[in-house]
Amino acid sequence: MSETDSFDQFHVHRIYRDLRFSKDKTPYKTHFRLHLGRTKPLLRGGYYLNIEPGNTRVSGGFWNPDSKDLLRIRKEIAANDEEFRSLFREKMIKKYFDGLEGEEIKTTPKGFDKDNPGIDLIKKKQFILRRNFTDKEVIQPDFLKEVVNSFLALRSFFDYMSEILTTNENGESLYK
After folding, report:
1. DSSP category for residue 75
2. What angle do CA 174, 43, 125 make, to 5 degrees?
3. 5 and 37 in contact (C-beta within 8 Å)?
4. Which residues, 6 or more positions from 8, have their beta carbon under 8 angstroms from its beta carbon?
5. Which of 4, 8, 15, 160 has its CA 20 to 30 A from that of 114?
6. What whole-number distance in Å separates Cα of residue 37 and Cα of residue 60?
7. Distance (Å, rounded) from C-alpha 122 to C-alpha 96?
8. Helix, strand, or coil here: 18?
9. How far apart are CA 29 and CA 176, in angstroms?
10. Is the pTM of the predicted complex or chain greater than 0.85?
11. What is the number of alpha carbons within 13 Å of residue 167 lying toward its C-beta?
12. Which pLDDT score is estimated for 19?
């Protein structure tokens, strides 16, 4: 992945459970997780891998963007929701992911028109793509290749969002 992208974060989540307030005193987690964060401020988004019996998945996106970034994303969608939607019709994204996921608010955010054609996207608080794997797929020799291919499929989404989050509404760079 480092040959095709730039990272400033690499986290392998610890295997030890925090037992202080837990009734379950099992000392180790039953899953493995890692996170690759792209080099900020110009590259946005993060890749995630969770390996766990019955719950293995690759995901990526914007889990809880800060309020400034969320407002910028919403304004871009309000201005042109079709461009945003077209990302999820791209061949590679459709091949590896089922569609955009993430929590939504129930009402129209303040300052936005409830009749905007992109209101379903404007209401989102998170922008995540996820691919699940069966336990049988995880033990196949090509599992790592499938993980990398899934990560690579996220790039067009990340690049689009990076462009939004590093420019103002006039398309001028925020970082000179």
Report:
1. H
2. 85
3. no
4. 37, 38, 39, 40
5. 160
6. 10
7. 24
8. coil
9. 44
10. yes
11. 12
12. 86
**Tokens at residue 75, please?**
């304004």
Distance from C-alpha of 57 to C-alpha of 78, rounded to nearest angstrom: 31
Q: What is the pLDDT of residue 71?
A: 97
What's the maximum distance between 2 C-alpha atoms anywhere in the chain?
Answer: 54
The one-letter code for the residue type at 1 is: M
> Do 82 and 116 contact (CB within 8 A), yes or no?
no
pLDDT of 68: 95
- CA angle centred on 11, ends 9 and 13, rounded to 5°: 160
How many residues can be counted in the chain? 176
Distance CA 127, CA 54 (A): 24
Would you say the C-alpha torsion 110, 99, 153, 64 has a positive or negative sign? positive
Residue type, 4: T
Query: CA 109 to CA 121: how far, in whole Å?
Result: 11
